[in-house]
Design a protein that fits this description.
With about 450 residues, the protein is α+β, with helices and mostly antiparallel strands. About 30% of the residues lie in helices and about 25% in strands. Strands 17-14-16-15-19-20-18-21 form an 8-stranded antiparallel sheet, sandwiched between helices. It has a 5-stranded antiparallel sheet with strand order 7-8-12-10-11. A 4-stranded mixed sheet has the order 1-4-6-5, covered by helices on one side. The N terminus is likely disordered.
């Protein structure tokens, strides 16, 4: 059933201001910014730009830390291509406009008694931006957001509108679920959904030695397991999410505010600012923040358990490793931080995902663990990220497409078995690189 008609109007603005991403580390100066309200309007804009020799990129909420969406040509803002297009309860699918934010999608699904099976830990991104860069959460059996796609609609370089799925243009579908914006502009996505369920979250502190020695057990026994290690300490915070028969027992409003806003955002932002100004204080700060969050257990609908507010701005690098490499790599990272006396105020995040069949998914073809490193915005991060990256690539790591890294096409072709298949689809759909930019040239080749 169609629920959200679109109006046939496109708004455009001349080059008057810069576009910046959420973290503020990427700035672009597009010639024009276009906000189409219908797919035909978008298709005409792409075809016109291509005929004028201009590059085209789509930018959602700007939550990528790379320049994947940067352009000096035409910048597409997809926010008016939003809303739920249709719901097919028999098939267990929902089709949405590509510009809908994950927050709005989750609320709309909940209002209909539906839910995604798994999701990441924030929901400010547009769905097209999230899937294009391989956004993921943590899961023993359930994979990334892109792996939950059953069909999508794509405007290609000549202005054609292409519908693809496992049975219709299957090669394009396999590539475009994590397409980096290199194949076209996504206009609609069909997700597999299920009846809304409850999750019980158990969050508790755990020593570094215990969580690393028991990592395999914790990841195997829980549907969703993740933990955060606070550098310069032996402190970790663990989170285990498992399905529950209920009843719902959500966090109280005051308790949620204290933990998620006052401690995780307000106080944490303040201590990060102190650490940036006085790096020598970081180890002492880390010992305080590592003890700040106490154990808690609650039961709620999925998006209220999987996601949380992230208001402290930072830059991030994340690598996907073979599952068995997670603990050795983390121990090596801990040793490097201590040996080089690096000052790291942000915790290191560790998550997991099962193997999937998406060509450029970071979990493509292998059970995966993710190690993510962060630095407070404005603090020097290059020495830390370079040291972490050296460890990750030694373990055959795959960098998150939307987070900072230094890898190029020659390296990536060696860690993605279907890399050449992806670039062949790109050559066919966009031989003139209408959707190209310097970031894509580096990671995909020219």
């Amino acid at each position: 059933m169609t629920e959200t008609p679109a109006r046939a109007r496109t708004t455009a603005s001349a080059r008057t201001s810069a576009w910046r991403n959420w973290a503020g580390n990427v700035t672009a100066f597009p010639l024009r910014t276009i906000t189409p309200e219908t797919v035909p309007d978008l298709a005409r804009a792409v075809a016109s730009a291509a005929s004028d020799g201009l590059r085209v990129k789509a930018a959602g909420s700007g939550h990528s830390f790379t320049a994947a969406a940067a352009t000096d040509g035409i910048l597409i803002r997809p926010h008016r291509l939003a809303g739920i297009r249709s719901v097919d309860r028999a098939a267990g699918t929902v089709t949405v406009g590509a510009g809908i934010r994950l927050a709005d999608l989750n609320r709309a699904l909940s209002a209909r008694g539906l839910s995604l099976t798994n999701m990441g830990d924030i929901m400010e991104q547009t769905v097209s931006g999230a899937v294009s860069t391989g956004t993921h959460g943590t899961g023993r059996d359930s994979a990334s957001i892109a792996a939950q796609i059953t069909a999508l609609e794509l405007v290609t370089a000549d202005g054609s509108v292409l519908s693809c799925s496992a049975t219709e243009h299957p090669a394009v579908f396999a590539a475009a679920r994590v397409g980096l914006g290199a194949l076209g502009v996504i206009t609609a996505i069909t997700f597999a959904v299920e009846p809304e369920f409850l999750l019980t979250a158990c969050e508790e502190p755990m020593p570094f030695g215990q969580v690393t020695s028991e990592f395999d057990r914790l990841a195997t026994e829980n549907e969703h397991f993740e933990f955060y290690w606070f550098p310069h300490t032996e402190h970790c915070t663990t989170k285990r999410n498992n399905r529950s028969q209920g009843p719902a027992a959500p966090l109280g409003r005051l308790g949620a505010w204290v933990d998620d806003e006052l401690l995780s955002n307000g106080l944490f932002g303040a201590v990060c600012a102190v650490g940036r100004a006085v790096p020598a204080a970081v180890p002492s700060i880390a010992r305080v923040t590592g003890r700040a969050l106490s154990a808690r257990t609650y039961t709620d609908i999925p998006y209220r358990v999987f996601t949380s507010p992230r208001r402290v701005r930072f830059v991030e690098m994340e690598y996907a490793l073979p599952r068995e490499a997670a603990v050795p790599a983390l121990r090596e990272l801990k040793a490097v931080i201590e040996r080089r006396r690096l000052r790291v105020a942000f915790p290191v995040e560790v998550r997991t995902a099962p193997a999937d069949d998406v060509w450029l998914s970071t979990a493509s073809g292998r059970d995966t663990a993710y190690l993510a490193v962060h630095m407070y915005r404005g603090a020097p991060y290059r020495a830390y990220f370079s040291a972490a990256e050296e460890i990750m690539i030694a373990h055959g790591g795959r960098p998150h497409w939307g987070k900072l890294h230094g890898r190029d096409a020659s390296y990536l072709a060696g860690v993605y078995p279907r890399f050449a298949d992806f670039t062949a689809v790109r050559d066919r759909l966009d031989p003139d690189r209408v959707f190209g930019n310097p970031y894509l040239r580096r990671v995909l080749g020219d």
